[in-house]
Write a structure and sequence with these properties.
The protein is an alpha/beta fold and 306 residues long. Helix content is 39%, strand content 15%.
Amino acid sequence: MNPFGEKMLDRRDLIMGLLATGGLISTAPRLLWADEPEELPPAQFRFGLVTYLWGQDLSLPRLINSCESSGLEAVELRTTHAHGVEPSLDKKQRAEVKARFDDSPVTCIGIGGNEKLHHADPAQLKAAMDATRAFLRLSVDIGGSGVKVKPDHCPRGEERERTIERIGKSLQQLGKEAADMGQEIRLEVHGSCAPLPLIERILEIADHPAVGACWNCNDSDLAGDGIEKNFARVSSRLARTLHVRRLDEKRYPYDTLFGLLRAAKWDGWMLLEAHDRPPEARVEAMRAQRAYFEALAGKRVPRKTN
């Protein structure tokens, strides 16, 4: 209690209160922040799902139904999963996939490829780029808007700048081709290339508007100068997708991330990429994550003090 008898709520208390009540009711105590709150633009981003891992075993009809039932508005189709949406589909099958999404409120946001662009071997790199091109064509055919790729790591014994340059130039080329298709290349912040100073440097080389960073909520986001400055390194080059883990996890400062995204007026798709096994009551669990999202997206964020 403060000296005036008004209850001080921390961020976690606020979220839990919103989840429990469905909103602030008139009899709730007036909320006070430790610092003068700063108004931020309303959240313009929306919430969806990556099929890794909570959707990995779902057929496409069940996947779409689960998203619709839980309020998740979009899905990134990770390759190799049970939905079966792969480059091997023929023209008719691709049209059927597109029709399924067109007939539902769920948006197909694109393909979660697993191609890695760090390869020093020219043949391996070419194979990864060719596979990404195939995913881009698939994304076009099913109504998606882009393809996710990985940097992925710095090969042992090779000078790091050489690896970064190779990844960046590969992305630049893929970005040109993606733009011609109306698509986006989404560089997942992943692997030993995940530190944001490296991603920033890669994007400087991959100087094309169709190439952006897919923020991935890694522990390395908090390293070095901290999340605010790391976010600033790539905030002007964010892709249309961003991955989060379970929003009820306490290890990651989601309240800060949501504030940064709102301040940046980012209007893409925040996609749930849960890293634990699919829960038995899957739709209910997905619905709970949606509730956390709504609570975080609607918050006022305290102004930082120097």
